[in-house]
Amino acid sequence: MLSIRNLGVRIDNKLILQGINLEVAAGEVHAIMGPNGSGKSTLAQTLAGHPDYQVSQGQVLYQGQDLLSLNVEQRAAAGIFLAFQYPVEIPGVSNIQFLKSALNCQRKQRGEPELDALDFITDVKQKMRQMQIDEALLYRGTNEGFSGGEKKSNEILQLLVLQPQLAILDETDSGLDIDALKRVAAGVNAFRSPERALILVTHYQRLLQYLVPDRVHVLQNGRIIRSGGAELALELEQQGYTTDTPSEDAPTQKREVPDDNG
């Protein structure tokens, strides 16, 4: 699904990612963890195609295609989805308009006809009930005046409606109380399938209690310094990000200590 090889990324002429290597297969969920400033969100934004992030080296293949040669719109049409850490408000564009336009753009890209209005609204309302989202939010401006939990739940509603091939969730769990966290996790679990892949960017193990990953990677100072199974997240929760034991996946990489902001 995704192959990242020696990826380096700059923003404002500052090198953030310094040689990322990562392989994500269809059907897998990978969690990216690490302290503040380690480059987690930079990786997510780069994969989605944010123009402020300049790739300085390396290669990214998505389903065998050169991802870096595609612009934002082309990546979205190819089935890449980014759930934002801070979802933006779009005043004047209702949630239902946004979802319908986005879905029909995806269908057009796949050579499929636009979805019938009745079929669309039936499907969306079923997914809203699944997410325990108030149907009234459909007719408000997208994310306009939504609470933090409503915004994050709305991101997962978009995920369920659009059904992308590769979903990247950038700290979707931040700012959520336990009930909202469970709703978000349930929605993401409903999305999981052998044909799709997920990358979860998170600080904390709590999301991974409800959304168990296949692999966990520790990103620190722009490099993946350690990888392991789901149990690695528990170890990080207990011990923090500093370790003296090399990972079997990265035996030659140097261990680094997080700064005071970690």
From TrEMBL:
PROSITE patterns the record matches: ABC_TRANSPORTER_2
Native species: Amphritea pacifica
Highest taxon, organism lineage: Bacteria
Annotated family: Belongs to the ABC transporter superfamily. Ycf16 family.
Region ranges (Disordered): 237-262
Alphabetized UniProt keyword annotations: ATP-binding, Nucleotide-binding
Basic and acidic residues composition bias: residue spans: 251-262
Domain ABC transporter: 2-246
InterPro entries noted in UniProt: AAA+_ATPase (IPR003593), ABC_transporter-like_ATP-bd (IPR003439), FeS-cluster_ATPase_SufC (IPR010230), P-loop_NTPase (IPR027417)
Protein's name in the database: Fe-S cluster assembly ATPase SufC
A UniProt-annotated Pfam family: ABC_tran
